[in-house]
From TrEMBL:
NCBIfam families: folC. Residues 42-237 form the Mur ligase central domain. InterPro entries: Folylpolyglutamate_synth, Folylpolyglutamate_synth_CS, Mur-like_cat_sf, Mur_ligase_C, Mur_ligase_C_dom_sf, Mur_ligase_cen. Belongs to the folylpolyglutamate synthase family. This is tetrahydrofolate synthase. Keywords: ATP-binding, Ligase, Magnesium, Metal-binding, Nucleotide-binding. GO terms for molecular function: ATP binding; dihydrofolate synthase activity; metal ion binding; tetrahydrofolylpolyglutamate synthase activity. Residues 287-366 form the Mur ligase C-terminal domain. It catalyses: (6S)-5,6,7,8-tetrahydrofolyl-(gamma-L-Glu)(n) + L-glutamate + ATP = (6S)-5,6,7,8-tetrahydrofolyl-(gamma-L-Glu)(n+1) + ADP + phosphate + H(+). The lineage of its organism: Bacteria, Candidatus Galligastranaerophilus. It comes from Candidatus Galligastranaerophilus intestinavium.
Amino acid sequence: MQSAQSILTSTDKFHIDLGLERTLLALESLNNPQDYINFIHVAGTNGKGSVCAMLNEILCEHFLNSSVNVGLFTSPHLFSYCERIKINNVPITCDDLDKYIKIALEAGEELTEFELLSVAAMKYFYDKNVKYVILEVGLGGRYDSTNVIKKPICSVITTIDFDHTARLGSTIDEIAYQKAGIIKHNCPTVVSVDNKGYGVIKSCANKQNSSLYTVENNLKIEFDGKNNYVYINGKKLPFSLLGDWQSQNLALVLEAVKTLPFKVGEQTVADAIKKVKWRFRLEYDRDKNLLIDGAHNPSGIRALRDFLDKYFKNEKKTFIFGCLNNKDYEKMLEILLNEGDELYFYEFDYPNALKYEQLPDNIKQRSQKTCDPRKILDEKQNLKVVCGSLYMLGKLFNAG
């Protein structure tokens, strides 16, 4: 039997073709397993992965000593497709992934890579008696294959900014309209009042008679170079996710938890946010003086640069950067680099990875191409920052 890996990466599957019809038809042939699961649906430009990770950790903690199963569907993966589908924080096995991708393929031969994964996940969660699933949108929302669900128990929309403009639109309002497509009739929606697309989201929520729960970014985060804390209701709590912007993500999570059909205790939340992990999202190794971040668009890079300027202002910085060629890499590098910063460009092996030759001359003049970033990480003693693409990080650290 052909493996899931070979099927998903085959040339006729490995592309994006937004639309719901193929996924709906495939799921219908499987008796619509998605209709028997309670979903928390999460869309947004930046932060949706962190929000999903926190929600998942909170629900897993809440149902820890019960028979209730909690599922998580995210993208992209770092090292293996199995990372994308989890139950109670345990990734799907390679054998089960092979099995369910084959089921999805038989249900719809024309499905793309992400559609196959979406169908496989829905069927897998149903077969494993999963009651609650945190479901991350792949791209956009309105025409994303995850949007086949009819009645989520909550929809969450994180920050909105410019990314994938060729597919989602060239204005914030156009992008917000695509993200707001996950809002369903009579289902609660959570969003920040500071969201750039708030007006469009509010309008879409009103049209769907969706109760709109708004949050303000009033949580304070402290990082002392070693430990990270957040203040919630006057209490100083350990918080495992770095970055001041995580305060807004956490605020969305706390509000979303309030809308759920069961009560989650404060201690459960405290225990969950202390141990939640979201790999390569502002991950700092103090011993190696190494900071790894999956920022892959201008707004994400801006947040990273702000963090560096606040907490590592006086340190010399060596950047290792690589990204996909459909990203606004010139803007990203313009934001990222300050005078005196050192840049190594990593040309990694991945479809559509940006090549060194595509860089503008002014960037080439201040950078060096590297095929062996690990050597640089080992040799440099100053702060090393690796960023630009989650796909690149997966390639670079796969052997480690």
